[in-house]
Structure formats: structure tokens, C-alpha cells
Amino acid sequence: MSALNAQMSLQQLAYQRPEQLLIAELMRQNELLQLQVHSLTLEKEKLAEQLEAAQGTLKSATSQEAPTEDPNVKKKRFRRVAKDIARDFRCPVSTCGKCYGSEGSLHQHLRLKHPDKFQELKLDGEIISAKLIRQSLDLVGGSADLQQGESEARTEKSVGSQ
């Protein structure tokens, strides 16, 4: 029943007894509340659809940015950019002049490009093999202790040769 019909029915009921007036007023309020519930239900359904659409958009955007992690697939390794690497390890061959960011890279260069110089440095004790470095790291538990041990070994070698 519309609001206009409700008002007309109230005028007709004005001639009836007070109990009937009270019942009529309660029925009118009930109809208004039912209309409000219906409109709120429609609004709730629209909001639920909008929420579902937004969640779908978010899910597709997330899946495009970071693919689902499969435990069988290895993660991509982070690599430094070449210009960000401090090249502190210089090749000892005077005609070469190459510089490297790690001692291991320098050793690999020496082993591949200057095998004669590599053998000479290895015999002099200036090059420690990668296997020995790994064993020292496992025993000592850190690279700082390893570097200190290398410098002590070089000092002892130079003192012993004099």
C-alpha cells in the first residue's frame, strides 16, 4: 500500500474506536518498515556485487604481479647490477688490468686466462682454493674470521721465507 492510500485509510478509521486506530497505525508503520527492508536488501545485493567485482579485480592484479608460488619452482636469484659492484680485486698480471668484485671471480679469471700465473701464485700460497675457503667458513662460521686467517697465513708465509 502506498503512503497516500495509508493516509486515506487513516481518515476513514478516525471514526472507529481507539483500539482500531492503534492497530491501523501499527499496520501503516509495518508497511513502511517492510518497504525500508526491501530497499535495504536491494542495496545490500548491489554492494555485494560491487565487492565481488572488486575482489576479482584485486585477485587478477595480484596474480599478474606475483605468480603463485609453486614449491617445485626455484625462486629467481637477485643479481647485482654491474655498475653497483665495487671492483676491489685486481688481476696481478701487469698486461691484463682486469678488476673483479670478489676474490672468487678473480681466481676464476686467473685459472682460465692466466693458468701459468695461477699455478705460480698457488705454489707461493697467495691463492687459497675455493674448497679450502668453504671448509674454513663451515668451521669458523663467518667470512670475517676467514679474512683474518688468510692475512695471518700470508704474514707467516712471508716471515718464513725471509
Task: Write the SSE topology.
Layout: H1 3-13, H2 18-65, E1 89-90, E2 99-100, H3 103-113, H4 115-124, H5 130-140, H6 143-161
Antiparallel strand pairs: 1-2
Helix pairs in contact: 1-2, 3-4
What do these coordinates show?
- The structure is a single chain.
- The chain is mainly alpha-helical.
- The chain has a two-stranded antiparallel ribbon with strand order 1-2.
- The chain has six helices and two strands; from the N terminus they run ααββαααα.
- The protein is rod-shaped.
- The longest helix has 48 residues, at 18-65.
- Mean pLDDT is 74; it is low at 142-162.
- 68% of the residues lie in helices and 2% in strands.
- It has helices spanning 3-13, 18-65, 103-113, 115-124, 130-140, 143-161; strands at 89-90, 99-100.
